Amino acid sequence: MPTLQEIALKTDGADARIVSGHRMCSGCGIGPLIKTVLAASDKPVIVLNATGCLEVTTSVYPFTAWNTPWMHLTFENAAAVAAGVESAYRSLKRRGKIDSEVNILAVGGDGGTYDIGFQALSGALERKHKFMYLVYDNEGYMNTGNQRSGATPFGASTTTVPAGKVSNGKPQWRKNLVEIVAAHRIPYVGQAAVHNTLDLYKKAQKGFNADGPAVLAVLQPCTTNWSFDPALTMQYSKLAVETNFWPLYEIENGVVHVNTKPSNRKPIEEFLKGQTRFRHLFKPGNEHVIVEMQKMIDDEWARLLKLEESGIQF
Amino acid sequence: MSERKTWQELELGVELPAATSLGYKTGGWRVLRPVWNASECIHCMICVNYCPDMAIPVTKSEEGVAGKGGRLFKGVVRLETNLDYCKGCGICAHECPTKCLSMIREEEAEQASCKL
Amino acid sequence: MGVRKAITGAEAAAEAMRQINPDVVVAYPITPQTPIVEQFAKYVADGIVDTEMVPVESEHSAMSATVGAEAAGARAMSATSSQGLALMWEIVAATPGLRLPIVMPLVNRTISAPLNIHCDHSDVMGVTTVGWIQIFSENAQEVYENLLLAIRVAEDTRVQLPAMVNQDGFITSHAVEPVEIFDDAAVRTFVGVRPLDRGLLDLQHVRTIGAMVLPDYLLEVKRAQEEAMMHVFEVYAEAGKELSAITGHQYPFFETYRTEDADAVIVVLNSAAGTAKVAVDAMRALGKKVGLLKPILFRPFPYAEVRDALKDVPVVGVLDRSMDFGAYAPVYTEIRNVLFELDRRPTTQSYIYGLGGRDIMATEIESVFEELLSGKLDPEHQRYIGLRG
């Protein structure tokens, strides 16, 4: 079992695969998220990064925060680039040009994953390249100032679907990426949250060690565009789990396992309050939106437990 | 500020060697400064693992360091926050289980260090 | 001496790829490129090559994965046509800036709409500004040899730029011709092995590839890229000389055919140059002094050399297999640029031909020569070969 001490040691000093001097916003959870995931690999990691917050803040020439082989190509193709790297790795290994072992990590935000990068991801999973795809999910295009994505939750106000006199923000529920990628019959899919370091680390380990493609989806509360005090990033992550808004679960070889079952799930208002994108929901007359949201969360949670209980494999 | 490279001096395909961002100090962004009271610390590593700026260094201590309640903490222990990079988000102070970290305004900290 | 095989242009490309035996080939099928991929897949299936072949879900991913493999340190190839090139355009445009020497056959086909699967050059002419080396091939033999040459030029340390090798869709890609395939061992020595030293998989040198470059450096990056492109001429000539030792063929930047003493010269790319040679011979047989200039290396464009070849020609007709709506056609534009520096410039005339696979006959080219010799020209307005109405 890993300990917080072991993880801390791996994320500091010469062993750190990502270092200080990056330009993420103060309090951004992507930092702890990516350093924890990278620490979970017992082999060198090659990172293929989609355009997004992580990419732009870590690679402004001539400064790079990466202490591991890293590449950015464009927005929608991190999984395809990873597929190319993995194919090169297998080819060069077979031909005796290299002998080292590596892990390959593709990483993107929700925009680069749920939306524009979805086809490349699906293709790479279907072809069973051995790599892990990490999505840090801040529920919209946060790098460019809070535009709607397929991961934006119901009721959230974004700059492209703002709340207004006749709008309560996004009218659709979010895409269920975890189940969609699990339908590719890949060996490992995990859903984690940035505040739960040990759970995140263990899931990243499983993903790296899986015998085939793995996907890790991690909620990443955005201090800038969800607009909360940067000190509260971990608190919002925790509340997302405690309200069942973002359950911690995994699908290992098709079998669903729910890692954390809050004994007393908190009402969704606990998560919503303090976030500018949900502020309109607390205006008189909009109570029904929160009621609807609560029902959807409870229904989804009940469904997830049933999936687990049934033992039916994905 | 170092001289910018000419086009003839650029790396092929603008490839960069590892970890050059260590030369980019983000501490200047800070409005609040974390103050660590080592005598209350239990070296739980929560702040270290949460730090978005990888700004809390750790070391392995065999002889141990004194922490909360005068106890000796051995193994992986944290050190002073690296203010070259800390952006002052306050996650460490907010999440600290023993409240051994607090945030003070940067100008207060500077005044205090001037007095010293 | 090689072995003569009756194969298509697509198969000739696949033969070159068989001999190159790349580390990785990533492709998505599209007419008329498909037979290249199919033939190469067969080589993989039969163990004739040990390439890692990745049949992806789109051309966008094809070029993305090719770039990934090349950046990892492999020698990677792809192949495409038309819409496929259009879909991968974003990544095609990103490749030269990363200085990745990917070599890709392009089977020229018109760009939709309207939908049409046949040959013209509207696909390649949409990417000539992004920084790939562009090489054109008249026939299957040239396709084969140009691909071998392209590997050496692209990967040379002075260059490190991607290269496309063009052939005409169906006309070249699907027509069977005798092609001389040279000795595997000699060709493999010529193409060599791509070193790992720039790759992500070179773990001794941890590197960041594709950093974000702001206004303080972008101009310098692009200037360096231009310099690399200018080195193509010398490298192309050197590598061409080495390849000649195997093939006995020459590798000029362009081919001239009976241009000495010519009163009129036609400039045309790819397979139509073959037809034009027939027309030149027919005209010469009638005592008419006409000739042909066939550009081969189109990017970088050898302005000075082409100027020298055309400086004493009174009339130059340029045949373009694509249009640039509201502007001069692409090849015509280059030829006009070539001639500008001359004190006594030839008269020029632009012709559009062969769009969407419309055949061009030797007799039509003869008519063009007649028109060029007649002096009834209008250099500022393009004419259309075989247009109704």
Structure explained in plain terms:
The complex is a heterotrimer of chains A (314), B (116) and C (389). Chain A is of the alpha/beta class. Chain A has a single domain, classed as Thiamin diphosphate (ThDP)-binding fold, Pyr/PP domains (Rossmann fold, 3-Layer(aba) Sandwich), CATH 3.40.50.970. Chain A contains twelve helices and ten strands. In chain A, helix 4 packs parallel to helix 6. Helix content of chain B is 17%, strand content 24%. In chain B, a hairpin with a 5-residue loop joins strand 3 and strand 4. The longest helix of chain B is centred in the last third of the chain and has 10 residues. Chain C is α/β, with parallel strands linked by helices. Chain C folds into two domains: 245 residues, Thiamin diphosphate (ThDP)-binding fold, Pyr/PP domains (Rossmann fold, 3-Layer(aba) Sandwich), CATH 3.40.50; 131 residues, Rossmann fold, CATH 3.40.50.920. Chain C has twelve helices and 16 strands. Chain C has a six-stranded mixed sheet with strand order 10-12-11-14-15-16, sandwiched between helices. In chain C, strands 5-7-6-13 form a four-stranded mixed sheet, with helices on one face. In chain C, strands 3-2-4 form a three-stranded parallel sheet. The termini of chain C are far apart. At the B-C interface, strand 1 of B face strand 9 and helix 8 of C. Strand 1 of chain B pairs antiparallel with strand 9 of chain C, so a sheet runs across the interface. Chain B: Keywords: 4Fe-4S, Iron, Iron-sulfur, Metal-binding, Repeat. Chain B: InterPro entries: 4Fe4S_Fe-S-bd, 4Fe4S_Fe_S_CS, PorD_KorD. Chain B: Pfam families: Fer4_7.
- Please summarize the sheet with the most strands of chain A: 8 strands, mixed
Shape of chain A: globular
Distance between the termini of chain C: 51 Å
- Topology-level CATH name of chain A: Rossmann fold
- Straight-line N-to-C gap of chain A: 27 Å
Compute the number of helices of chain A.
12
CATH architectural name of chain A: 3-Layer(aba) Sandwich
Shape of chain C: globular
Low-confidence stretches of chain A: none
- The total tally of domains of chain C equals 2
